[in-house]
Amino acid sequence: MTRKATVIAAMLLTMSLPQASFSAVDVPSLTEAAGRYAITPGSRIAFAVDQVGGGGIKGKFGKFSGTFNLKAGDLAHSMVNFDLKPESVSTGQDRIDAFLRSGAVFDSSRFETISFRSERIEQTGPDSARITGTLTAKGHSSSEIFDVKLTSWNGRKIGFNVSGRIYRSRYAMDVGTPIYSNVVQFDMVIEGERS
Questions:
Q1: How far apart are CA 7 and CA 133, in angstroms?
Q2: What is the biggest distance separating any 2 CA atoms in the chain, rounded to whole angstroms?
Q3: What is the pLDDT along the chain (195 residues), one digit of tens a residue?
Q4: Helix ranges restricted to H, the chain
Q5: Alpha-carbon torsion 90, 95, 98, 103, what sign?
Q6: Which residues pair with 52 in a beta bridge?
Q7: Which candidate among 17, 70, 88, 189 keeps its CA 20 to 30 Å from the CA of 101?
Q8: Long-range CB contacts (< 8 A, 24+ apart) of 134-140?
Q9: Rounded Cα–Cα distance for residues 154 and 188 (Å)
Q10: What angle do CA 115, 116, 117 make, to 5 degrees?
């Protein structure tokens, strides 16, 4: 084998080794992390709706609360409860914010809370999980799935990146389709403090 081929083989071998040892976060055991956590105000709930031809709507919610309970040795029976206030939506554009709060979308004067209640949690990797539960918005409920990745842990606080895709039509909020996508993409940073 030539020197060049040896170097290439060594690079391929290195690239194929498991990457778990290079994780930036020390993954706690469920026994270590077990307990009830309150979601902190430092969390971030962001969303985006694409538009044909580019652009779209990006925003966040400023008022939310929730808890999650991690059960020692039993992630499947852990629970997540989350509520957000749709009137707290903010896109940086007053006209769009008013439209989103109106009866055409959130109807936030009649439906003050959007809620999520977990039903099943399954571990998908050493620092990741998938949460299935019921989302209720504007008087409609549907099963939704969110992917979760552990990002921080210090023994008292725990942090996750949470992502998911929700179809607006399930909640009678599909005004503007097909110019605006029926899919809302969520990108959330959730921090919980043990209570």
A1: 49
A2: 73
A3: 443 333 333 333 333 333 333 346 788 887 889 999 999 999 999 999 999 998 899 999 999 999 999 998 888 899 999 999 999 999 999 999 999 999 999 999 999 999 999 999 999 998 999 999 999 999 999 999 999 999 999 999 999 999 999 999 999 999 999 999 999 999 999 999 998
A4: 3-16, 30-33, 94-101
A5: negative
A6: none
A7: 189
A8: 135/166, 135/171, 137/86, 137/106, 137/111, 137/171, 137/173, 138/106, 138/107, 138/111, 138/171, 138/172, 138/173, 139/111, 139/172, 140/170, 140/171, 140/172
A9: 20
A10: 125
Query: d(Cα 82, Cα 117) in Å, to the nearest integer?
Result: 7
Is residue 12 exposed (0-12), middle (13-18) or buried (19+ Cβ within 10 Å)? exposed
Name the pairing type of β-strands 89-90 and 114-125: unpaired
Report which secondary-structure segment, H or E, holds 25: none
pTM value? Answer: 0.84
